[in-house]
């Protein structure tokens, strides 16, 4: 597959096919798991602020629910495609499975750009999305969550619309809600922290002390911000971050050899994770091209933006001193690039393991909402650490035992659990 003709769903299927071969799955199981079980495509009419009516295209893809209700975020993005949603729904199935939580994989999206929409227009999209899917999502069937360019307010609008339709209070419908409205403490930090929990275990396994390492991070949204914070707390130093500049419609890398200060950068960051480059320069950051994050002389790379970022075109720019890639984003590495990374012996913590902290904490929120009983933050993060650490070692132990690449081992663990659930249910 050429990176230039990148299709995330084809990539996800290629990754699954490789695992299916390892596991010697029968044809029926392969056909079931390499395609979504259900898809919903629909139009959302919105009365815009200028008086015109605009139609937005929405999606929900439910890949597999053999292990429990579907789980997965909703993206608002101008370049959203159904193949992206299909791929993400499949990765959600493996993500829930690899951390062994009783949920399946789903994903949703709307083709739109929140940068150019008023709050009222965004609210109408959220409510319209729910109206189209009210019969197909729910606390016991499919539980949405925030994703790229959606947030707690969007989730609350969706929950309110759902509860209005059914005339009941059902906070377990959706996760990523505001704390105080059924949201979970620790959810904001969860994905970024989960990346670092697994990174910490990888460093420990390799006999490397965190305070002897440096990292370069792609992205400065929620995942990257909390990953940087926790990584620095355990002793590491981030020397470069890369993010998209909405004004220039391009990305930049911000480098500071003495170490990035996430709290200072947040004062010049917009709500979508974009950093003002002029103010960053005034703070002493060197402003580099967007892809420069991948070329840095560091020990660790943490791609935490979107899919298709480490490709056949740029993989050879990875510095010779890089030892670990911890994938905070979904699908950041193409198969073509992955082959090179494997051959170079770089240790990879694959995306659906590394970034599973978000869905794990979403599961905790779902449980709390359904019980109407909420845990303290330390308890949530403690449970998250236990889950992520156990998941990492389950994958690492299999990788060591069968001499497998970490991505392959993670797929074997995840796919085998889902395949077994389908078999136990009598589906295949």
Account of the protein in words:
With 428 residues, the chain is of the alpha/beta class. The protein folds into two domains: 38-183, Rossmann fold (3-Layer(aba) Sandwich); 188-354, NAD(P)-binding Rossmann-like Domain (Rossmann fold, 3-Layer(aba) Sandwich). The protein contains 14 helices and twelve strands. The chain has helices spanning 8-23, 27-33, 82-98, 119-133, 152-166, 187-206, 222-233, 262-266, 277-282, 335-344, 351-354, 357-371, 377-402, 406-424; strands spanning 38-47, 53-64, 70-77, 104-111, 142-146, 214-218, 237-245, 250-255, 286-289, 300-303, 324-326, 347-349. The strands form two sheets. A seven-stranded mixed β-sheet has the order 9-8-7-6-10-11-12.
Task: Present the secondary structure layout.
Layout: H1 8-23, H2 27-33, E1 38-47, E2 53-64, E3 70-77, H3 82-98, E4 104-111, H4 119-133, E5 142-146, H5 152-166, H6 187-206, E6 214-218, H7 222-233, E7 237-245, E8 250-255, H8 262-266, H9 277-282, E9 286-289, E10 300-303, E11 324-326, H10 335-344, E12 347-349, H11 351-354, H12 357-371, H13 377-402, H14 406-424
Parallel strand pairs: 3-4, 3-5, 6-7, 6-10, 10-11, 11-12
Antiparallel strand pairs: 1-2, 2-4, 7-8, 8-9
Helix pairs in contact: 1-3, 1-14, 3-14, 4-5, 6-7, 6-12, 6-13, 12-13, 13-14
Give the DSSP E fraction (strand runs of 2 or more residues): 15-25%
Quickly count the domains.
2
Measured between the Cα atoms of the first and last residue, the distance is 30 Å
Compute the gyration radius: what is it? 21 Å
> What do we call the CATH topology of the largest domain?
Rossmann fold
Biggest beta-sheet profile: 7 strands, mixed
Mean pLDDT: 93
Side-by-side strand order of the widest sheet? 9-8-7-6-10-11-12
Basic shape? globular
Count of extended strands:
12
CATH superfamily of the largest domain: NAD(P)-binding Rossmann-like Domain
Order of helices and strands: HHEEEHEHEHHEHEEHHEEEHEHHHH
- Category from helices, strands and their pairing: alpha/beta
User: Could you list the spans in which at least 5 consecutive residues all have pLDDT below 50?
Assistant: none
Instruction: State the name of the first-level CATH class of the largest domain.
Output: Alpha Beta
Helical percent range? 40-55%
Annotated CATH architecture of the largest domain? 3-Layer(aba) Sandwich
Number of helices, where a helix is a run of at least 4 consecutive DSSP H or I residues? 14
């Amino acid at each position: 597959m050429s990176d230039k003709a990148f299709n995330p769903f084809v990539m996800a299927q290629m990754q699954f096919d490789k695992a299916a071969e390892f596991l010697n799955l029968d044809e029926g199981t392969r056909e079931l798991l390499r395609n979504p079980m259900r898809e919903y495509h629909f139009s959302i009419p919105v009365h815009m602020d200028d008086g015109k009516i605009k139609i937005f295209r929405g999606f929900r893809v439910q890949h597999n629910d053999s292990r429990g209700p579907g789980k997965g975020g909703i993206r608002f993005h101008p370049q959203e495609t159904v193949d992206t949603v299909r791929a993400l729904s499949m990765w959600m199935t493996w993500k829930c499975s690899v951390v062994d939580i009783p949920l399946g994989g789903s994903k949703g999206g709307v083709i739109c750009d929140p940068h150019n929409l008023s709050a009222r227009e965004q609210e109408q999209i959220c409510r319209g999305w729910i109206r189209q899917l009210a019969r197909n999502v729910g606390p016991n069937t499919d539980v949405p969550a925030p994703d790229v360019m959606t947030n707690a307010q969007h989730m609350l609008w969706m929950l309110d619309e759902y509860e209005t339709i059914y005339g009941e209070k059902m906070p377990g419908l959706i996760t990523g809600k505001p704390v105080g409205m059924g949201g979970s403490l620790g959810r904001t930090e969860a994905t970024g922290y989960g990346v670092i929990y697994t990174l910490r275990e990888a460093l420990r396994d390799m006999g490397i002390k965190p305070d002897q390492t440096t990292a370069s991070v792609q992205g400065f949204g929620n995942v990257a911000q909390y990953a940087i914070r926790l990584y620095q707390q355990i002793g590491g130093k981030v020397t470069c971050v890369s993010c998209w500049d909405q004004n220039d419609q391009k990305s930049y890398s911000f480098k500071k050899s003495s170490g990035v200060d996430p709290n200072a950068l947040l004062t010049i960051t917009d709500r979508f994770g974009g950093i003002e480059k002029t103010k960053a320069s005034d703070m002493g950051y060197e402003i580099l091209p967007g892809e420069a994050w991948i070329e840095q002389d560091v020990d660790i790379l943490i791609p935490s933006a979107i899919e298709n970022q480490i490709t056949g075109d740029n993989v050879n720019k990875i510095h010779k001193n890089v030892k670990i890639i911890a994938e905070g984003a979904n699908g950041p590495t193409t198969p073509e690039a992955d082959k090179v990374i494997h051959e170079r012996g770089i240790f990879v913590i694959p995306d659906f393991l590394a970034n599973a902290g978000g869905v794990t904490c979403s599961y905790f929120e779902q449980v709390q909402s359904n019980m109407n009983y909420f845990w303290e933050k330390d308890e949530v993060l403690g449970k998250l650490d236990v889950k992520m650490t156990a998941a990492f070692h389950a994958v690492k132990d299999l990788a060591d035992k069968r001499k497998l690449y970490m991505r392959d081992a993670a797929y074997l663990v995840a796919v085998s659990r889902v395949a077994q659930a389908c078999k136990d249910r009598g589906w295949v």
